Amino acid sequence: MSARYRVACLQMECAVGEPSRNIATAVRLARSAARAGARLLVLPELCNSGYVLASRAEAHALAEPVPDGPASSAFLEVCRETGAYLVAGLAERDGADLYSSAVLYGPDGHLGTYRKLHLWNTENLYFEPGDLGVRVVHTEIGRIGLAVCYDAWFPETFRALAAQRADLVAMPVNWVRGPGDAEGSHPAGVTLAIAAATCNGMSIAVADRVGEERGQRFLGASTLVGPRGQLLAPLAGDTDEQVVAAEIDLEAIRSARTWSPYNHLMHDRRTDVYGPLPTGR
Amino acid sequence: MSARYRVACLQMECAVGEPSRNIATAVRLARSAARAGARLLVLPELCNSGYVLASRAEAHALAEPVPDGPASSAFLEVCRETGAYLVAGLAERDGADLYSSAVLYGPDGHLGTYRKLHLWNTENLYFEPGDLGVRVVHTEIGRIGLAVCYDAWFPETFRALAAQRADLVAMPVNWVRGPGDAEGSHPAGVTLAIAAATCNGMSIAVADRVGEERGQRFLGASTLVGPRGQLLAPLAGDTDEQVVAAEIDLEAIRSARTWSPYNHLMHDRRTDVYGPLPTGR
Q1: Does residue A70 fall inside a structural domain?
Q2: What domain count does chain B have?
Q3: Within a domain: residue B200?
Q4: Using 50, 70 and 90 to split pLDDT, how confident is the model at B1?
Q5: Residue B236 in contact with residue B8, Cβ under 8 Å?
Q6: C-beta atoms of A134 and B228 within 8 A
Q7: CB contact under 8 A, B155 and A153
Q8: Which residues of A212-267 form beta strands (DSSP E)?
Q9: Which residue of A has its CA nearest to B275?
Q10: Alpha-carbon distance A232 to nearest alpha carbon in chain B (angstroms)
């Protein structure tokens, strides 16, 4: 049985206010990873606009409609050309409203948009909370779930993705150092991704950015987790552009929820105590 | 304001089939930690019976009624004598039924029993799934939640404990090596405890056992996590009896869910997408 494919988390540096440059960087990394065999490419959150926005006017100017904007056009071209699937975190503009979105493209076009449900800190000044629920998209390479950064602090996000039978969650992030991050442990976001993969029997592919923007440093540490919570490749470093890639095996994923003849991670849930899985739709 | 107290996770070796010896070990550790200033003591799962049971007859013989059994009597005596609170994982017998329970004792008596909701592997041969829901007990030192081992693989456990406003979750465990455990990362249970503390803004005190029993090794790594997911003390090792202790600060815990003027870990939940917190009662 062949149900394997290669996933690449594309850790890059973004520059706030320079979407053309950011898109060019993303395209370069994506094309290179696809040519090296990756079928699924994941880019960081807000990879077109940059993260540390200074005003609503700036945010509006840097965001773009999806899929009819320049980042979408560029990523669709990469997918058509290479046969890969690509998830990008984008500043999305829809009329007067902005969203921090995760957008999935494939060789045949735009496949789905997810809008970040949980907004972190001053994102609340610029973006609307997502209004499209939790999103899993069915593709030839399997069921791809979408989530963005702070969504991972809410285990319900992954529960809803599991209810929709996601094989893999592609998660663009812009991790910054938080109050619980300490030497000797993984950054909190990495821990949450490993925990979510462990509890839900799914893979999680996280692409973070690096660099500093208006005084804010980003953590890197892009992460590719297997369906038992194992790291499928070493974490990325915290300073450089880097590709974290490994092969994903749908056979391993779709059998990962069965742990023993007595245990299945979903069926062991005590619905009588805390109810059924939310679908998030 | 003084709302601090010292917590001690008591990592010990248990011997299957030797409850008197196990209780004596637990009492020795508990008394010593209490005399060193701990107000809350946590002991491992099934610390009276041992874990690797060979038959239902053996399980029935080793389990005891709560609170009218020998382990409860011994632990109540330690609490009365020292003024401490103590959580022990016990094989509990209630008529024909056995439970893997976490029992809370205080200076004034037995305060509450929680019965493990999620049974792992061959535990299903001996124990009934818990029938008392999720349990938080109010005490002079704060709101103490109870959970046992495999419960941590279900994020709903911690969500329900958070809904009941637990300050700290005392979690007896008997961790064994699982399929996702790999060199270079924490054991899965540690990761899940850190993740749960991070998402829920609560402390988690895990007491594991060490040693080998009928060919099964246990992982140690007893863990004390703060309400931002930070380790409050180094993890215990994987071979020796050890006390993992640190001070808990209710001020830090009860303010930990507010991350920024824009963010509160509970209020940021998207109840419109996945519903309210389950209380688990």
Answers
A1: yes
A2: 1
A3: yes
A4: low
A5: no
A6: no
A7: no
A8: 212-213, 216-217, 223-225, 242-249, 258-260, 263-264
A9: A278
A10: 11
- Taking an 8 Å cut-off on Cβ atoms, the answer to whether A263 and B121 are in contact is yes
Identify all chain B residues contacting A194, using CB atoms and an 8 Å cutoff.
185, 191, 195
**How far is residue A106's CA from residue A82's CA, in Å, rounded to a whole number?**
10
Which pLDDT does position B178 carry in this prediction? Answer: 84
Q: Is-catalytic flag, A47?
A: no
| Mean per-residue pLDDT over chain A, rounded | 96
Does A67 sit behind a cis peptide bond, omega within 30 degrees of 0 on the bond before it?
A: yes
> Are B231 and A268 an interchain contact pair (Cβ–Cβ within 8 Å)?
no
- Would you state the pLDDT for residue A1? 55
- Given a contact cutoff of 8 angstroms between Cβ atoms, the answer to whether B121 and A263 are in contact is yes
Pairing of strands B97-106, B109-115: antiparallel
pLDDT at A93 over 80: yes
pTM confidence score: 0.98
pLDDT tens digits for range A161-172 = 999 999 999 999
Specify the residue for token string 């996000």.
Answer: A157
Range of the domain at B203: 4-250
User: What DSSP element (H or E) covers B204?
Assistant: strand B203-207
**Cβ atoms of residues B130 and B280 within 8 Å:** no
CA distance A189 to chain B (A): 9
Cβ contacts from A onto B, under 8 A: 152
Q: How far is A81 from chain B (nearest CA, A)?
A: 36
- Please report residues of B whose CB lies closer than 8 A to that of A183: none
A281: in domain: no
Q: What is the CATH number of the domain that holds B35?
A: 3.60.110.10
